[in-house]
Write a structure and sequence with these properties.
15% strand; eight-stranded parallel barrel; globular; TIM Barrel; alpha/beta; homodimer; 8 strands
Amino acid sequence: MNREQLFHQIQSKRSYLCIGLDSDITKIPEHLLECEDPLYEFNKAIVAATSDLCVAYKPNLAFYESLGASGWRSLEKTMERIPGGCFTIADAKRGDIGNTSTLYARAFFQNMNFDAVTVAPYMGEDSVKPFLAFENKWVILLALTSNPGALDFQMNRQDDGELLFEAVMRKAQNWGTPDQLMFVCGATRAGQFEALRKIAPHNFFLVPGVGAQGGDLQALSRAGMNGQCGLLVNSSRQILYASSGKDFAEAARAEAMKVQMEMQALLTEKGI
Amino acid sequence: MNREQLFHQIQSKRSYLCIGLDSDITKIPEHLLECEDPLYEFNKAIVAATSDLCVAYKPNLAFYESLGASGWRSLEKTMERIPGGCFTIADAKRGDIGNTSTLYARAFFQNMNFDAVTVAPYMGEDSVKPFLAFENKWVILLALTSNPGALDFQMNRQDDGELLFEAVMRKAQNWGTPDQLMFVCGATRAGQFEALRKIAPHNFFLVPGVGAQGGDLQALSRAGMNGQCGLLVNSSRQILYASSGKDFAEAARAEAMKVQMEMQALLTEKGI
């Protein structure tokens, strides 16, 4: 999916919600455990109940890998159920030397047809570039994350005055265009969104952490939106586990709709 | 495997060789492609031919993930063929917020019984700690990698004078002991090994890059060894693809033996 198509989805759905498929075998409704492939059945129902309210789905790879080959298969099957109009993000945080990153890129972009993959910047340009070689596919590079450990290195001031995450955002813009490069920008620091937007005016930001990780949708949206919205705001647990009963999909839809309605107002406010 | 057991393996095998199972479906001998599970057959033969000459195997996850669920299954089956005396490293370069890292740790440590997993430091302490909660399991944290992109951020000087990778090595030593924490230290910079050893005197270093990535075994060993050897030096392609014929396993053994003999001399020189 290219940037225009993504923006079109945002405009027509009046939403920039990304639903994180952190689908946890220990948290999904008990009655699903009788199915042959419980994670897939759970995801299928969640997607069917929410795909008109969100513009993106973001499976978190750890939840599938922790189940081995069968988890990987659940993910492959899930990908087949996500409608073409939804942007898909492999939240994998990969990154390795060039030829290895190329293989990760193939795994996600070609084999499973994801639109985007999250990538860690520590190993630098040649670990990121292989992901940028695929047409209409996206890298979402970790910049400022929402966890406490973000303070350990990302906020380190370099001797030229920049913080490390600022250096990442600045440098990475030489590697790819805003048509293929987004940044992960943590929502627990809404006050910093204006500064983040100045560093990268045109790139989309993937914002984790609305919901269980804390965060303020209104504040971050007002500070972080650009003319094409420029935000994908993620919510996972709050939507996935809104109910642990047989009504889990309806409950997920109700939660997603709450967020979508708030987003609709914010888009209107911004004139989008 | 704990540190004493690893050291014992090094002493008895006279080797600190790690064989990287970067097993590439496009590079393995053609006759194997007729098998039901070519990657597994390749790995099985390589392991059988080399397990007395190396102390560790390091499957690179990308090569398996790029084949989807079936690749994941090839890896699971490979793990069952690696003898208990060999240290096993999931070269996965994972790292995410706490609960997600816990799931990755389970995937590698519990489900597949790896001894160690490579972890990226960018997200800080709470992304690394979950891996350190498993007894006799290891984190191998990226510090200074061997690729050109290592210059992009790892070598950034912080305003307190430290380089970023030095800050990573120093800080991470507060998170785990040398009985559970190793560092990835790139072999293309043998001249820096003395400095690396000063920052982390007791930790094992996983050294990529001997072989196809360049590197000088003697120089890095003399500069980087500590009293328990403290090094695992990786070689992948040079061993795996020593021959593309039916003699690939014998050819791999011959290559591994060359490295092992050089290591034997270096261990003796160090009095180990």
